[in-house]
Write the structure tokens for this entry.
Amino acid sequence: MRLLITGGAGFIGSSVVRKAISRGYEVINFDALTYAGCLDNLKSIENSSFYNFVKGDICDRAEVRSIFHKYQPNRVLHLAAESHVDRSIDGPGAFVQTNIVGTYNLLEEARDYWFSIGKDTNFRFHHISTDEVFGSLGVDGFFTENSKYEPNNPYSASKASSDHLVRAWGETFGLPIVITNCSNNYGPFQFPEKLIPVVILNALSRKSIPVYGTGENIRDWLYVEDHAEALLTVLEKGRTSRTYNIGGLNEVKNIDLVKMVCGKLDVICPDNRPYEDLIEFVGDRPGHDKRYAIDATRIREELGWSPSVTLEEGLELTVKWYVENQGWLDALHSRNGVGQRIGLNA
Ligand code: NAD
């Protein structure tokens, strides 16, 4: 199979690219290399004969068109996006452009290309999305594939819009599509503006560790390699015109998660005082969803996927990776937003 992977230089995309290459798939990584894209994430496979990199923007329709016709992929895995909620509060425009207009461009060019190859039944457009499109849960219940869309911030609203476009291109034009909605990811190569790498980075620099509000918000965490495995499982066995929820059954309050990470650091990099002493509660994120939790029964029962590591194991792997890969972090230090509190302009 030849996979066109958009956003393959990002956190999740690079994990999918590495895994796809190890499975013997040919990959075309199409990525604009925004602040969040990093080719160092792909050093382990960059010389593979199965790997092609094209720097390009999904908002540039002509560029997208030429990629389809040059590489003739039979699968699209669409991960390119603006992905940080806090940035979407400070500047929603980029989210509308990339996540909505960019997805529209990709769908139109995919449709055109698919027509040109005689509507090949082996073709598939797989859109990678988030559970945040479903809004916020109360104390009980889980998001299922039938949950109502109720996005509360510009990021989740732009992802919800792109989900709707993908669904419509399937229903209206018959494009073979599949959508996956996943919970919060963590693991190696995550840009240090998201919670877990910020905690590790700040703790190692003995800076305060910012926790939004009272830290009571609940997220369902999934190790990134497990997400990548789920995406390839859907690619290989999933049905078209279907959505699959992906989650780790690892619900935890943000404050407890931060303390778990600090606990791992206490063991791996002992200091003369516990790292959790650095925790500082800061102003809450506007529109901060209270709780996310995924019911992943469908993907487990239909496709046989389930997470391979527990949260404890995944956090240990993650903390060790960041401690051992300071060079990767140092290379990112000059970039805008690293370790900073943003998203308060609202
Ligand atoms: P990321 O921010 O780490 O990476 C995004 C990648 O997309 C970067 O390499 C960037 O250069 C590229 N990109 C951005 N704009 C582009 C454009 N206009 N054209 C081409 N490339 C562009 O994001 P991530 O955390 O790896 O998330 C990947 C996908 O998974 C996103 O669609 C996100 O919505 C979804 N998702 C993320 C999570 C999570 O917890 N991180 C959870 C569920 C779903």
In short: The mean pLDDT is 95. The chain has eleven helices and twelve strands.
